[in-house]
Design a protein that fits this description.
Layout lengths: L10 H9 L3 E6 L4 E4 L1 H7 L3 H4 L13 H13 L13 E4 L5 E13 L2 E10 L1 H40 L8 H31 L3 E9 H18 L3 E6 L7 E5 H17 L6 E9 L8 E8 L20 H5 L8 H11 L3 E7 L3 E8 L4 H6 L3 E4 L3
Parallel strand pairs: 7-9
Antiparallel strand pairs: 1-2, 1-5, 3-4, 4-5, 6-8, 6-13, 9-10, 10-12, 11-12
Helix pairs in contact: 5-6, 6-10, 7-8, 8-10
Length: 388
Amino acid sequence: MSADDIPHEDRYFRSLLEAAPDAFVIVDARGTIRLVNAQTERLFGYDRSELVGQPVEILVPESALGHHQSRRDGYVVDPHTRPMGGIDRDLAARRKDGTEFPVEISLAPLETSEGLVISAAVRDVTERARLQQEADRMREELIATVSHELRTPLSSIIGYTELLADLGSEHLSDVARDLLEVIERNAQRELRLVDDLLTVASVTHERLVLNTSTVDLARLAADAVAAARPLAEAGGLTLLLEVEGQPGDSVVVGDQMRLGQVLDNLLTNAVKFTPAGGTVTVAVRRDEGSGAGGGSVVVDVRDTGVGVDPEEVPRVFERLFRARHAVESHARGAGLGLSIAQAIVTAHGGSIAVQSEPGVGTTVSVRLPPATAQNSRDAGSSIPRSAS
């Protein structure tokens, strides 16, 4: 069908369409292209005669064809205006020569005498994506450089405070010792933040290295609970450890330091956001599952804290995201802990999930594949793993 066959469209409308800065593709309810503008020809490399009458999938990358049909059918059932930059991110389109490029797309439905037609505005965001990647790279390099420079003096401060703390009462008064503990505590806090920043930089550049060995998550959890107990008791909390199953059920192959970092981050969050009188529980169990593969070793960190609003739960793993209650209560933290935990768990071939209810509490569940005879033999190497 030619452009002249579109009902109620006149020369004025087509002139506006041709003058639009974005590519416009108008399709019917069956996904057949009815009309395109000059920008579409320039962007995709087709003549409009090659597009009109063709299914819109001619412009869709092969990797997206499988779900594009169902999504298009769903839109026809519930047509609505969808602006650019909405929930659909990482969209791509395909040119005549087969090359793919990133795009943003807006959709607008229009009822006509011949039925529903849909106007899709397509914008090439290749340059924007390139600039964003470059900005991200420069930011992460700056973070890594500054973090390295901060780590050295902080390590020196901590080392000297430990030496001073070993002095006897004839050299150090009780007041001075208390002040020294404050200095060391704050220096340790800053060092943890620097280490988190370095981990973020490693993850971003896919340089997260796993020094693998067999790791007993039950024992690792016990160490993490012991380390967190002073902070929990100072906050008036009950800290519990629950281990189910037989010895060996909780053994995985992984990086003990990195997995310890995950548990430390989860426990720190749980203690931080649980009011006095509450309980934080670390539970280690084996979940055999219903399929093949030996199930999972699961570590649940449960608290009776303030919880997270339902609309915020999907965002808790975003880097630098801080929930509303964290901002309002001025809780310390940079919003890196959960994103780092997710990156480490993913690099181990596992998964991490959050369930939360405001005023009731939060549960963070880490699932990791259990050790097998084969991967236990393979343990002990230093393996660069992508955590993206």
